[in-house]
Write a structure and sequence with these properties.
The complex is a heterodimer.
Chain A lengths: L1 E10 L3 E11 L4 E6 L5 H8 L7 E6 L2 E2 L8 H5 L2 E5 L10 H12 L3 H14 L15 H13 L5 E5 L7 H16 L3 E5 L3 H7 L2 E6 L2 E4 L1
Parallel strand pairs in A: 3-8, 3-9, 6-7, 7-8
Antiparallel strand pairs in A: 1-2, 1-4, 4-5, 9-10
Chain B lengths: L1 H6 L11 H8 L5 H25 L1 H32 L8 E5 L5 H13 L3 E7 L1 H11 L3 H6 L8 E6 L6 H13 L3 E6 H44 L1 H9 L4 H44 L11 H26 L7
Antiparallel strand pairs in B: 1-3, 1-4, 2-3
The chains are: A alpha/beta, B alpha+beta.
């Protein structure tokens, strides 16, 4: 589902941030991406999100080559992924419903279909009844779950999470990880960037470890 | 669920990009009518939400729109000034006639004979005789000095023969020869080609028109830049929203849409405001101008912006709004990425 072949990312200012990174995450696989800060985790995620292109190598997402995709194809490739962030990246001036509906609105769904799917996604993250609230009226854990609902509402085959438990206490983190496990079970590929060692060792999933831009274990 | 399952049929990703998958994502969201409705809803939403945003920050909006409205009203104000000046010279434009002012001692009968003989000339189309009495009446009506002339004991105006040459305006040499011939005849005091001063007046008008055009282009450019800058600030304020929309797969046109509508509204409202400003100025000017015109016993009436001109004013303002924001979006959106 996500395949890196000898990927190198070089910035003019800082040199190689990623060097010869190769790995393959299969359909329905769940993996942690870890490493010290500055190891290249965020760069790797940006490459997957097609926000940047790699300097060398090949990135395949669901069979599509990102390095050769045209600029106007990138939005459609991004629709195959759900992104979850440490800072949730919710729109504060829109309700929970509108936040979760955004990917569907963008994809051009009719409003009946949108309402149905948003309710289903909110139900999955146990936020039924909070549709009309604004993000600031929710707790951190709830906001993160809104972010998760938004990531899965379009039923993407890939979920990318960047430090999803960074701001949450262990109990909430466990809850979130349980959700990811559920998505994996229906065949979704999940990649979680995290440096929460206890969480990683506890869950015994595959771990991709970056060190100074190189993959040291996969 | 059905769509997600389809995505999961293949086990190992092939190396080549699969177009089919792209199409599948593009056509997500039900049947054609649903998609069409959703598209229409998107536009309607962008149209009204962008207006709502302008209303939500009234101070900023009013400042921007006021500057734009003044710039646009300057441009259209100068345009309407030129249009009004043209009205003064408009009826002269086709004239290429030669006026022969006859000597004082020439009688009306003699003048008639002269007119007949000139009519025989092959290069003359028509001759019109204006007697002293006719000239006086005309002068009293149009010049504004009717009262002054009544004071004089004797009619000072000469008999005039208006000669309309056959040649069109282009044949200048032919006209010059004709003019010289007339000048040599003993009855003629002054032979004057109306064309000369019509031409002068037309050149003045051409300069004024050109100036108006240049002014319009410059002010149009200013409008473009002001709207562009406004949209740039708006984009900066809503950066977060743009980044999130990008991440969840928004196309460039989806991201641009609300900003283009904002540009449209700013241009549209500024255009309408400019119309009101120009019309208000014209209403203030109308009475003094008509009074002035009355003093010259002239039939001059102030022309307001016509229906077509009003449409053009608002249309061009709106178009500049869209164009200004579009230009900025093309350059700025590429650099709007998450950290």
């Amino acid at each position: 589902m996500i395949k890196f072949v000898n990927v190198t990312k070089r910035y003019a200012e800082t040199g190689d941030v990623l060097r010869n990174v190769s790995f393959h995450l299969r359909r329905g696989e769940i993996a942690f991406l870890t490493g010290h800060s500055g190891a290249g985790k965020s760069t790797l995620l940006r490459l997957i999100a097609a926000m940047e292109r790699c300097s060398r190598g090949q990135i395949l997402l669901d069979g599509q080559d990102l390095s050769h995709a045209k600029e106007n194809q990138l939005p459609f490739i991004r629709r195959k992924m759900g992104f979850i962030y440490q800072d949730y990246k919710l729109l504060q001036d829109r309700t929970v419903f509108d936040n979760v509906a955004l990917p569907l609105v963008i994809a051009g769904f009719g409003h009946h279909e949108i309402a149905r799917r948003v309710r289903a996604a909110l139900d999955k993250v146990s936020l039924t009844g909070k549709e009309k609230k604004y993000p600031l009226a929710l707790s951190g854990g709830e906001q993160q779950r809104v972010g998760i609902a938004r990531a899965v509402v379009n039923k993407p085959p890939i979920i990318i999470a960047d430090e999803p438990t960074g701001n949450l206490d262990p109990e909430l983190s466990e809850e979130i990880m349980f959700l990811f496990g559920q998505f994996q079970q229906v065949g979704v590929t999940v990649l979680i960037a995290s440096h929460d060692i206890s969480l990683i060792t506890q869950l015994n999933h595959r771990v991709l470890k970056l060190d100074h831009g190189q993959l040291v274990s996969s | 669920m059905k769509r997600a399952n389809k995505n999961r049929i293949r086990k190992d990703p092939p190396v080549r990009p699969v177009r089919q998958d792209l199409r599948q994502t593009k056509t997500a969201g039900g049947n054609f009518v649903d998609k069409l409705n959703a598209y229409r809803d998107l536009h309607a939403h962008a149209l009204f939400s962008s207006l709502g945003r302008l209303v939500a920050s009234p101070f900023t909006s009013i400042m921007t729109i006021a500057v734009l409205a003044i710039a646009i009203s300057l441009a259209s104000g100068f345009h309407i000034l030129v249009v009004n000046l043209q009205q003064l010279t408009g009826n002269l434009e086709t004239s290429n006639q030669i006026s022969l002012f006859l000597r004082d001692d020439v009688s009306d009968a003699h003048a008639n004979k002269l007119a007949d003989s000139i009519r025989q000339n092959a290069s003359v189309q028509d001759v019109k005789l204006i007697t002293r009495a006719q000239a006086l009446a005309e002068f009293q009506t149009f010049s504004g000095f009717g009262a002054a002339i009544n004071v004089l004991e004797k009619n000072p105006l000469p008999i005039v023969l208006q000669v309309l040459p056959k040649n069109s305006l282009e044949d200048k040499e032919g006209l010059e020869t004709l003019l010289k011939n007339f000048q040599q005849s003993p009855e003629v005091d002054i032979a004057q080609m109306d064309l000369q001063w019509v031409e002068r007046l037309q050149s003045i008008m051409a300069v004024a028109r050109l100036f108006a055009t240049l002014l319009n282009v410059m002010l149009g450019g200013a409008v473009l830049f002001i709207i562009g800058n406004t949209i740039r600030l708006e984009l900066h304020n809503r950066r977060n929203e743009v980044v999130i929309a990008k991440l969840v797969g928004a196309t460039s046109s989806f991201i641009r849409r609300p900003f283009l509508y904002t540009g449209f509204w700013i241009g549209f409202i500024s255009g309408v405001s400019a119309w009101f400003i120009v019309t208000a100025l014209m209403l203030i000017l109308r009475q003094p101008v008509e009074k002035l015109s009355g003093l010259y016993e002239g039939g001059f009436h102030l022309l307001f912006l016509s229906f077509t001109e009003t449409l053009a004013l608002i249309g061009v303002s709106s178009a500049l709004g869209v164009l200004g924001s579009w230009t900025v979006l093309i350059f700025q959106l590429k650099h709007t990425k998450p950290e």
